[in-house]
Every structure is written in C-alpha cells, then in structure tokens.
Amino acid sequence: MRATGLDKRLHALTATEMVKLIQAGEASCEAVAQACLAHIEDREPDVQAWQYLNPDRVLAQARALDRQNASTGPLHGVPFGVKDIIDTYDMPTSYGSPIYQGHQPVLDAACVALSRKAGGVLMGKTVTTEFANMHPGKTRHPMDPQRTPGGSSSGSGAAVGDHMVPLAIGTQTTASVIRPASFCSVFGYRPTYGDLRMVGVKEAAGSLDTLGLMARSIDDISLYRDVLLDMEPTPLPPASQAPKIGFCRTPLWSELEPYTASLLEAAAEQLTKVGAHVQEVKLPSDFDSIVEIHRAISSFEFRRNFTYEIENHWEQISLTLRQGRIANGQACSYEQYCDARMWAEARRRQLDDIFASFDVLLTASVAGEAPVGLSSTGNPVFCALWTTMHVPAITVPLFTGPHGLPVGAQLVGRRYRDRQLLAVAQWVSQRLG
Amino acid sequence: MRATGLDKRLHALTATEMVKLIQAGEASCEAVAQACLAHIEDREPDVQAWQYLNPDRVLAQARALDRQNASTGPLHGVPFGVKDIIDTYDMPTSYGSPIYQGHQPVLDAACVALSRKAGGVLMGKTVTTEFANMHPGKTRHPMDPQRTPGGSSSGSGAAVGDHMVPLAIGTQTTASVIRPASFCSVFGYRPTYGDLRMVGVKEAAGSLDTLGLMARSIDDISLYRDVLLDMEPTPLPPASQAPKIGFCRTPLWSELEPYTASLLEAAAEQLTKVGAHVQEVKLPSDFDSIVEIHRAISSFEFRRNFTYEIENHWEQISLTLRQGRIANGQACSYEQYCDARMWAEARRRQLDDIFASFDVLLTASVAGEAPVGLSSTGNPVFCALWTTMHVPAITVPLFTGPHGLPVGAQLVGRRYRDRQLLAVAQWVSQRLG
Q1: Single GO molecular-function term (chains A, B) (predicted)?
Q2: Which residue from A63, A179, A285, B249 puts its CA 20 to 30 A from A90's CA?
C-alpha cells in the first residue's frame, strides 16, 4: 500500500483504531505518522511536550513498517512517546537534567524494545521533570499554557492529551503518571509493582518506581499492557454488571479541593444508581503515616542511587532536588528506612484483606484541576499511598472542574488483578464518562 | 607520606588492616595498590580473574588519595574489585557478553560511586559469566586451574580468594555470590533484598537480584556494607554467647555431596558443644516447589529485560542462555509468573514466623568442593530458596573437602537483621573456623 499522504483526522484516533485502519489497508503507517507529526508541528510551540523529536527518524520507521508484507505485531504502525527518563538506542536521553544533555544510550529500555517488537513507531522523547522528581521541564498544559500539565511524566500526559500520539510511557514514584493523566484528561495506568520491567529506566527509588501508560481509551491501555508483558493481546473481560466498589476517603481527604470531594461523592452515588455495589471504606489509622513512610523510602533510596551525580555534578542539580529528596534522604537513617519498608509490607497485607470485599476502590487522583503556574507540578499526596502499596491504579477522566479543566477519578485494584481493574474502569467510564 | 614501594605482604591484608596501616602512616595508598598489582601480575596468568585492569589508572587513584592531607573516608586507600556487570565511568563494562565488548558507560553504578566516596581504589572489573547467567567466563579456581571458581561472580570470588584485592562486589540472582565465595574460601554476603542499591547494575531478574560482597573477614563485610548504605561504619555488636541456630536441611538436601552433609552435621553438633542453642528446623512442604518458583520469576523477567539484545543481537547470545533462561522465560505465562510471586510472598511470611525462634539458620552453601571443569560454574540450587525469600545470607569458609578444597557453610538471617546475621557469623567463624 502506498502512503495516503497527510490525513488530519488520523492523529486523533486511538491506538486500537489506528491498528484497525492500517490492517484494513485504509491507512499506511506513514500516513498515521505524518498526521501525528503535522499535529505536533502545529501544537508543539504551545505545549512543548517533546524533549527530542526528529520527524525524519519517525518517518523512516513508519516507511520500514509499510515495506513489510504483513503486520509486525499488535502495535503495527502506532506512534508512541517515551518519557525522557527511559533509554533509547537511537535518540538521546537526558533524564531531565543538564548533566546528561545529549547523552546517547547504547540500547533500548525493555519497554521500548517491546514496543518496537510489537511494531510501534517511536515518535520521540517526552519531557520529564529533573530525574522524574519535582523540578519542572518546559511542558505546559494543552488546554491552558498558564497551567502545569502535571509531572513528572509531563510530556507524556500532555502529548496524549493533545492527540499528538495515542500512547505514551511514563513512570511513577509518587504520583507521576496518575497526576499528569488526570490533569490532561487521559487514562493513566500504573501497574502492579514489578509487572512492567524497568530495565533501561533511570531509577528514582526502585522500591516504589513503576512504569505507567497513558492513552485515550482503556482498550488501548489494555493492549499496551499486554505488549509490554510480551503477551498475546486479549480483549478485556466484561466487568460484572454489579462491581463491588469501595469509596475510600483516604486520611488526606482534607487536602482535596471541595469541588473534587463533591464530584467524587456524586460519582459514588451515581455508580450505585447504575447498578454497582458501592460501600464506604475507612482505612485503619495505621495508614495515617503514609506521607512520612513514602518520604523515608523514596528519599533514602534516591540519595544513594544518585551518589555519582551528587559527588560529581552537584552544581548541576536543582535546588528543589538538593533541598528536597536529597536532603531528606541524607537525614533518613537506615533504621527509619527499614521500619518504613516493614510498615509498607504490613499495610499491603491489610489492604489485601480489605480487597477481599471489593473489586476496586474509588478515590481521588488529584486535588483538583491543574493549578496555575509552571513552577510546581501539583500536589502528589493522593497517590503516595497506592504507590507504596504496590497496587494497580488507573485515573479515569470523569470530571470537569470550575474552570472547565479535567479532573480524573482514581480506581485502585488488588495486586496482580490489573485486568479486573481495567475491566471495572471500563464499566465505570462507559456509565459516567 | 611518601610511597613505601612494593611490599609483598600488604596485598594479603584485610581491608580493615589496610585502613589501619594507612591511617597510622605505616603504608601509603600507593604502596598498598602496588602490592596488590604485583600479586595480580604474578597470579593473573593462572587465575584470570580480571576482565579489565589498568595499573596506571589504579596507581593514579592511589596517588591522588595520598596527596590528600586526611583520610577521605572509611575505605581510604583500599583496593576493591567490581564484577563486570556493574557500570564504571572510567573503565569499560561488557556484562560478560560480546555484544557489549568495549562498551564505556558514562557514569558509575551507585555501589561504585559509594565505594569511591569512601576512599576506595577501584582496581578493575572482575570476570562475570554472560549477563550474570550460566555461560562461563575465563576465570579459573585459584587453587586448581582445572576447576571452576564458581559463578556468576567468578572473578570477584577468585580475586578475593587469591588475595588480589581485599574486597569485591558481585551480584546474585540464584547463587552467584554464595557459590563462588564458598568455592574460593572467602566470606560472601548477600544482603536483605533491596538494601544495597542496584542502580547501574545490569539487571537479570530484578525481583531477585541483589549485590553481594566478598571479603576475607566478617569485619570487612560489615565495613563495606556500612559504606554501601552510606552509613557511618560501626563495629558489629558481639553475638549472644548462646545464639539460637536452626539447622535446616532444605528439600534439596539429597543433592549434597555426602561429605558436605556430614561436615554440616558435625558443625551443628560442634556449635552445641561451644554453647549455641542448635535445633533442627524442617521447612513445611509448601517450600518444596522452590526450584520451579525461582525458575518462573527469574526467567519471566530475564526474557523481558533482555528484549533489546534478543531482538537485535540474537546470534551473539550463547546457546546456554538461549536454551536456558530465555527459553524458560518464553514458556512462562504471566499467570505462572504472578502465582510464583504470590507464592514467594506467602513463604516469606512463613519464614518470618520460623525466625521468631531462631537468630540464624545453618544450611548448605554448595554441594561440595568446586567441581572439575570450566564449562559449568556448579550447582546453584542450595541458594535458590534464600534468594527468593529476600533474606540476608553469608557463606563462612568452615570446611575442607576430600581434595583439600574449601567448602563454605551458609548462615541465613531474618530480613532487615543483617547485622545480627553478621555478628552470629563472626561468633560461629571464631569458634569453628
């Protein structure tokens, strides 16, 4: 099939839709790539989602796929973006830090190699905050350039939200996938800890870090998850007509914007009306110390992980990072760190018990709409617990805030039950979305 | 202080002894480095422990330390070796694979940076098997060149055992620290999973991988552990005069050489005589499936972690690896992998309960002496359980086999109780060693 040329609509399709069109011979891989590139060219000056983007390299990949006689895999011809904390053999990777400006890894991270193996087209590297911590990159919110897109996977959230690519990979140590996805009105999925391999990803705090996937449909999330597990993609099972949903106001509920609390409460009521079994879940007070626990684990590990950079490139590390996670990690003793890990393990068992009664928990993704200002990427506390618990989570773009900007709702599943979580999220999204 | 020139005895000192001499002004860092280099020059043709060694670079580091007015840290002037699976900014790192021949990383792994921060002198890169799996490197047993030194941390075990360096870092996914340490008559310590950070280490199977430390004294192990945790070194507490020791014949006891079983049984009896409370521990039959469980976790992850190499450099991967861990990982389903992880988590809780009654468990490190032949690095099964359980372990050079070669005994501790494990190992070593 010959390239059909630039098609303005193609860029807004989901990955699943793109795959169907390409397989049916109704669009070439090159046409899809061209459409995404044209949209990026148009929008990038405002959004600045990309740390590295080379159209020639994108088109060369797409044309090579078009020259194949058959589909190379379940992502054949689908453009995807990769957070610039993740190594790529053919594009520089700077980890959001001037220390690594222009750094060229010699191999692909496992997630990139698995995406390419499935026929995906690597569009480019999306902007990350410095080392996936707090110091922001250049990206702006796609709907309001005065506002943050969220972080640390800022470019991945903005690129998918702005229809530049249908899929992007991020990473999360606290809230770095759920938060930008919520702000940018996309689905953001954080898997069960350990499932999606982190080889070739610059580690922040390995006991908490996971990949995260951003997309504009849950089918796309499920497809991409199967690809990254190197499994044959299989459609999601239908959710039960009456999923058991625990409505969980975490100990940090008071930090929510009042409108977000109201929207979540209304959603819980609405879910009952459409047939779900919704019941309030109050976490035991053991869970109250989550912020300190998360800080101990993340900072102790970060401080040691970045010894090379701290010893050799201190002046090129932001004050935010020096005075934040690095200082916290210096102040955290090994005993505090071990206590925190043991606390987390005990709470995971408690949470397993709670999940005996529920398919998923419904809770907040973020405090509210993306805040005005580019110096902060927003409040991360609503994810710290679930990240530390190693449970899968997905933010679903359900709400609109007072300024017309999106606010996601977070659904949290039991460890290793990611497909059940995605199926229930599909059910919820179809009824409330 | 001026360099005192070559001193033949210096190379055989422990790290703790070297530090004392250097601090007392009785030896320079350069003299220590020269002594180690001279010994290596003498022995390397037989042992072949080093993948990369550049004397000029070693001496430059030592001289720079000598130019400091004061000690730069607790390892000031101590030469250390690093398994060539671990990145170093100033020495190539080839991961035991022709794919990465001459590869030069741009930064130090966290463990290397922490060692240098403490004043250590990086001697060079020690030989690893291919990607820390089974296909052997060139290293031979220091006491018999017909025999394997064990693997995958082959060069680290041989270099410390042969007095080339007092300290070396290895890694363990199954038995890759305990086994070569046992064969080469050194202490080999595998920490509680997660404690010593793995940033900059080529991952095999991240749910199981840890660093491991090799040394010729337990004080050295403790010192190096403190350095790699970025803690102020503190001497080990004295062990109780009557440590509670569980003697654990694992489900795999029948794979031991009969002499090893006898030596371990005699050691258990002897420990009772010298005052320990020794009691037999029989693991519940739940633990019997450990070999299959370990295979599922290690191979599922390895297969996905190495997607880049498999897709792009298949012909440069050994048949051993292709037909072993990679094929196993391809055959392992996601469901089997999840079941294996859940099994491991449940067994860890059972083991915590068992440890309520014991300070440490005494068990086998290896089947027996290092076997003849360089095509295999020996039977790893005696470590698979403890590795999967995430517990700390140390092999203590207690025994001599029928050919006069060393056989270690393994002591296993409770998670996060590494110092207690080391203290009891000291107690045992002083009484039986």
Answers
A1: catalytic activity
A2: A179
Q: Is the dihedral of CA A410, A411, A413, A419 positive or negative?
A: negative
**Which value does ipTM take for this structure?**
0.96
Strand partners, B316: none
Other beta carbons less than 10 A from residue A242's beta carbon: 12
Do A98 and A316 form a contact (C-beta atoms < 8 A)? yes
Q: Do A416 and B342 touch (CB under 8 A)?
A: yes
* Alpha helix segments (H runs only) across B96-209: 110-117, 154-161, 178-183
Going from the C-alpha of A414 to that of each of A194, A245, A246, A364, A420, the distances in angstroms are 14, 12, 12, 17, 9
Size of interface A-B (CB pairs under 8 A): 98
Domains B10-228 and B244-288+336-432 share a fold: yes
Structure confidence by residue, pLDDT tens digits, A134-184: 999 999 999 999 999 999 999 999 999 999 999 999 999 999 999 999 999
CA atoms within 13 Å, Cβ hemisphere of B86: 32
- B397 forms beta bridges with B408
Which residue from A minimizes the CA distance to B109?
A: A308
How far is Cα A95 from Cα A83, in angstroms, rounded to an integer?
8
What is the separation, in whole angstroms, between the first and last Cα of chain A? 37
| 3-class SS of residue A41 | helix
Contact B307 A107 (CB under 8 A): no
All structural domains of chain A with their residue ranges: 1-433
**Mean pLDDT, residues A244-253 taken together:** 94
Question: Which listed CATH number (3.90.780.10, 1.20.1250.20, 3.90.1300.10, 3.40.50.300) goes with B10-228?
Answer: 3.90.1300.10
Average pLDDT, chain B: 96
Q: Token match 């390995």: residue?
A: A206
Report the CATH superfamily, name and number, of domain A1-433: Amidase signature (AS) domain (3.90.1300.10)
B47 has pLDDT over 90: yes
- For residue B346 the two structure tokens come to 């449940």
Which three-class secondary structure state does DSSP give residue A299? helix
Residue reference for tokens 């002591």: B411
Residue A251 has pLDDT above 90, yes or no: no
Q: In what order do the strands lie in the sheet with A121-126?
A: A50-53, A121-126, A79-83, A167-172, A210-215, A187-190, A393-400, A406-413, A360-364, A244-248, A277-281
Tokens 């310590």, located at residue: B189
Cα distance from N-terminal residue to C-terminal residue, chain B: 37
What class has domain B244-288+336-432?
alpha beta
- 3-state DSSP assignment of residue B161: helix
B197–A308: do the CB atoms touch at under 8 Å?
A: no
Q: Please list, in sequence order, all residues whose beta carbon lies within 8 angstroms of the beta carbon of residue B234, skipping any fewer than 6 positions away.
A: B226
Q: What is the distance between the alpha carbons of residues A110 and A115, in angstroms, rounded to a whole number? A: 9
B152 as an active site residue: the answer is yes
Q: How far is A108 from chain B (nearest CA, A)?
A: 6
Cross-chain CB nearest to A304 (options B103, B197, B349) = B197
**Predicted confidence (pLDDT) per residue in A337-392, tens digit:** 999 999 999 999 999 999 999 999 999 999 999 999 999 998 999 999 999 999 99
Q: Do B134 and B168 meet the contact criterion of CB atoms below 8 Å apart? A: no
- Summarize chain A as % helix, strand, coil (round to 5): 45, 15, 40
The two most distant CA atoms of chain B are separated, in Å, by: 63
Q: How many CB atoms lie within 10 A of CB B242?
A: 12
The closest of B391, B79, B381 to B210, measured between CA atoms, is B391
